[in-house]
């Protein structure tokens, strides 16, 4: 149970989530009021606005995103449970699209908080292990030159950005560590070793 509690803490579980996890492991208490069927069904929901509202991508783009990220047919968690790769990506995106507690996602996906935490961690780890190197040296990308830096920075500034040379960021919270290892200075805030909630604020060199 200690490993499960550690994962829940790293995933940002609330006191309510932790209490339910402890009760489930110690006395086998489960919430019998949970719906039998989940709210989300990727194969049957066709409303594009539903996908944009919940995941910030259209259904077509979610399929494309899974393809380009090379997410496998099945994601395997550390407890050897498997979940459909497309569903795992949606769970991760739903968690990151808004400050959702794990318990808030239970009825949406019909998974318990513990399982959701493991799925999110496994999916984020897969993405970082296979594609994290793309952030190591931003100057190595042909599509990212000074003109694009300036275009992105201007767009952010026009939308109310606080500084004129910030050209990109990923939202989130946690503790601060400043790194100037690469041409674009990066402000990194880490939630956990897997960088699930890594925040990067990029400034023009």
Describe the structure in brief:
The protein is of the alpha+beta class.
- Which descriptor suits the 3D outline? globular
For the largest beta-sheet, the strand count, sense and barrel status come to:
4 strands, antiparallel
Uncertain residue ranges: 27-36, 172-199
Strand content: 5-15%
Q: First CA to last CA: what distance?
A: 47 Å
Describe the strand arrangement of the main beta sheet, using strand numbers: 3-6-5-4
Alpha plus pi helix count: 8
Mean pLDDT: 75
Kindly state the percentage of residues in helix. 40-55%
Query: Radius of gyration over alpha carbons?
Result: 19 Å
Number of strands: 6
Secondary structural class:
alpha+beta
Structural domains: how many: 2
Order of helices and strands: HHHHEEHHHHEEEE
Features:
205 residues; 6 strands; single chain; alpha+beta; globular; two-stranded antiparallel ribbon; four-stranded antiparallel beta sheet
